[in-house]
């Protein structure tokens, strides 16, 4: 791991030199003050996603407290603050924090009830866990210098495949073999049914992939784009444009953070509905 | 330059695809999810649903109470209106009674006064008759005296009886 970091540093140095050379006159002035922070126009939009140990530079074992641990813990802390500390008064006339918590509760509760029906409410805590975790992880990732845990496919794949396996097992437990009717369109003409079944089956197995890649991809792309624009801010001539662009994209990313959490949660509800009512 | 940069990043690899960090991320993620799930399902969600249920209960209770109060206010108003109407009838009745009593008193007083007036009139009339009678007698006496004197003046000695008869005869006519 240590050697890996070292190579990167040298790469960064050479790259900085290249950039300065490429931009010629424009970048000469920049190069002077950029030289002492290791390279002028440095593009490392993905460095923000590197998993590092919190203490020291050792290897990342499965138990090592890393920046992932820190930002996951902060997400947990936010959930606790909003839903436990915020509602500790149990006030009939709620405080501001309590009413925000109630808003989240009501929103998710209604979403589960609308999509899955009354019998889906049994699984409401699971959907709520996913929704608030992704929401807080997304928003915490938007803080400057933070680490976006949901940008990692390792994280979103656990969430996505967790939903996939959970829903599939639940479907078979609740419906037995008749869960397979999910793939057998009884309304379709008989000769089309096998073809549709194959398509349905493929789409069913693609679900967890799209479910998890959608989230990680959105967050990664947004953060990387912001970093690219941030790197351009090093050039005096384009820095106003670059800073405007960062501001605009930041606004967009705030939107994306909320929407992706919502999309993840509502897709979870849709998949859950298939497990509860497999017949089309 | 940008392509060179991207190429370099790909060469360095996306941190997302650095599988050596996967066990670490998955381990801590599972802990975080379990903690959030336990916090939500054991503490937060029952508490919030309790608060929400209590609030909707309070609201419906308050609405019912308000409805009740409104009903009672309507009742009270009806009672008040009725009392007002009763009082009005009662006052009319008392007024009528008082008026009747006063009328009766007045009638009695009038009758009494009429009676008094009648007796006094009768007495006065009797007096007048008496006076008239005595006046007639006096006139007769005076007339007799005057007639005797007239007759004496004419030089004739008048018969007393004839004079009386003549005077009486004249007074009749």
Automatic annotation (TrEMBL), chain A:
UniProt keyword Membrane present:
yes
Compartments in which it is found: Cell membrane; Membrane
- Membrane protein topology class: Multi-pass membrane protein
Keyword annotations for this protein, in alphabetical order, are: ATP synthesis, Cell membrane, CF(0), Hydrogen ion transport, Ion transport, Membrane, Transmembrane, Transmembrane helix, Transport
According to the record, the residues making up region (Disordered) are 1-20
Q: Which GO terms describe its cellular component?
A: plasma membrane; proton-transporting ATP synthase complex
Q: Does the keyword Cell membrane apply?
A: yes
Instruction: Write out the function statement from the record.
Output: Key component of the proton channel; it plays a direct role in the translocation of protons across the membrane.
On the tree of life, the source organism's domain of life is Bacteria
Q: Name one GO molecular function term.
A: proton-transporting ATP synthase activity, rotational mechanism
Q: Which Pfam family, an example, fits this chain? A: ATP-synt_A
Q: Specify the signal sequence span.
A: none
- Coiled-coil positions: none
User: So where does this one cross the membrane?
Assistant: 68-86, 123-147, 153-176, 188-206, 226-247, 254-273
The record's comment on protein family reads: Belongs to the ATPase A chain family.
Name recorded for this polypeptide: ATP synthase subunit a
What PANTHER family is this protein classified in?
Answer: ATP SYNTHASE SUBUNIT A
Automatic annotation (TrEMBL), chain B:
Predominant place of localization: membrane
TM helices/strands, residue ranges: 26-45
Could you tell me the membrane topology recorded for this protein?
Answer: Single-pass membrane protein
GO CC terms, sorted: endomembrane system; plasma membrane; proton-transporting ATP synthase complex
The reply to whether tRNA-binding figures as a keyword in the UniProt entry is no
- Compartments in which it is found: Cell membrane; Endomembrane system
What domain of life is recorded for the organism? Answer: Bacteria
InterPro entries attached here?
Answer: ATP_synth_b/b'su_bac/chlpt, ATP_synthase_B_chain
Sorted UniProt keywords? ATP synthesis, Cell membrane, CF(0), Hydrogen ion transport, Ion transport, Membrane, Transmembrane, Transmembrane helix, Transport
The GO terms this record gives for MF are: proton-transporting ATP synthase activity, rotational mechanism; proton-transporting ATPase activity, rotational mechanism
Q: Which family does it belong to?
A: Belongs to the ATPase B chain family.
User: What job does the chain carry out?
Assistant: Component of the F(0) channel, it forms part of the peripheral stalk, linking F(1) to F(0). The b'-subunit is a diverged and duplicated form of b found in plants and photosynthetic bacteria. F(1)F(0) ATP synthase produces ATP from ADP in the presence of a proton or sodium gradient. F-type ATPases consist of two structural domains, F(1) containing the extramembraneous catalytic core and F(0) containing the membrane proton channel, linked together by a central stalk and a peripheral stalk. During catalysis, ATP synthesis in the catalytic domain of F(1) is coupled via a rotary mechanism of the central stalk subunits to proton translocation.
How it assembles, according to the record, is: F-type ATPases have 2 components, F(1) - the catalytic core - and F(0) - the membrane proton channel. F(1) has five subunits: alpha(3), beta(3), gamma(1), delta(1), epsilon(1). F(0) has three main subunits: a(1), b(2) and c(10-14). The alpha and beta chains form an alternating ring which encloses part of the gamma chain. F(1) is attached to F(0) by a central stalk formed by the gamma and epsilon chains, while a peripheral stalk is formed by the delta and b chains.
User: Which named protein is this?
Assistant: ATP synthase subunit b
Report the source organism.
Loktanella salsilacus
């Amino acid at each position: 791991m240590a050697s890996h970091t070292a190579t990167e540093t040298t790469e960064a140095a050479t790259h900085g030199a290249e950039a300065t050379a490429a931009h010629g006159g424009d970048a000469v002035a920049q190069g002077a003050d950029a030289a002492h922070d290791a390279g002028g126009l440095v593009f490392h939009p993905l460095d923000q996603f590197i998993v590092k140990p919190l203490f020291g530079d050792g290897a990342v074992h499965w138990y090592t407290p890393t920046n992932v641990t820190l930002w996951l813990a902060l997400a947990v802390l936010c959930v606790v603050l909003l839903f436990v500390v915020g509602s500790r008064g149990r006030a009939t006339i709620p405080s501001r924090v309590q009413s925000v918590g109630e808003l989240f509760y009501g929103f998710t509760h209604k979403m589960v009830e609308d999509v899955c029906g009354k019998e889906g409410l049994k699984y409401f805590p699971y959907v709520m866990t996913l929704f608030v975790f992704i929401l807080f992880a997304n928003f915490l990732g938007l803080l400057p210098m933070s680490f976006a845990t949901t940008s990692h496919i390792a994280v979103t794949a656990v969430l996505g495949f967790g939903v996939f396996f959970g829903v599939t097992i639940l479907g078979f437990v609740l419906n037995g073999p008749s869960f397979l009717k999910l793939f057998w369109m009884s309304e379709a003409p008989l000769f089309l049914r096998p073809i549709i079944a194959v398509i349905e089956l493929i789409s069913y197995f693609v679900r967890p992939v799209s479910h998890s890649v959608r989230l990680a991809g959105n967050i990664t792309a947004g953060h990387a784009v912001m970093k690219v624009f941030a790197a351009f801010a090093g050039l005096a001539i384009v820095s106003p444009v670059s800073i405007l662009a960062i501001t605009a994209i930041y606004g967009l990313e705030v939107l994306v953070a909320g929407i992706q959490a919502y999309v993840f949660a509502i897709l979870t509800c849709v998949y859950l509905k298939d497990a509860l009512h497999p017949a089309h | 330059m940008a392509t060179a940069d991207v190429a370099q990043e790909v060469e360095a690899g996306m941190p997302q695809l650095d599988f050596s960090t996967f066990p670490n991320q998955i381990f801590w993620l599972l802990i975080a999810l379990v903690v959030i799930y336990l916090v939500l399902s054991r503490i937060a969600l029952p508490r919030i649903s309790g608060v929400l249920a209590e609030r909707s209960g309070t609201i419906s209770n308050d609405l019912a109470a308000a409805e009740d109060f409104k009903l009672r206010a309507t009742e009270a108003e009806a009672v008040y209106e009725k009392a007002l109407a009763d009082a009005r009838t009662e006052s009319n009745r008392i007024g009528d009674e008082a008026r009747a009593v006063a009328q009766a008193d007045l009638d009695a007083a009038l009758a009494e006064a009429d009676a008094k007036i009648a007796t006094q009139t009768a007495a006065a009339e009797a007096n007048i008759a008496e006076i008239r009678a005595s006046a007639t007698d006096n006139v007769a006496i005076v007339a007799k005296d005057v007639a005797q004197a007239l007759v004496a003046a004419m030089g004739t000695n008048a018969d007393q009886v004839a004079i009386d008869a003549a005077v009486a005869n004249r007074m009749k006519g």
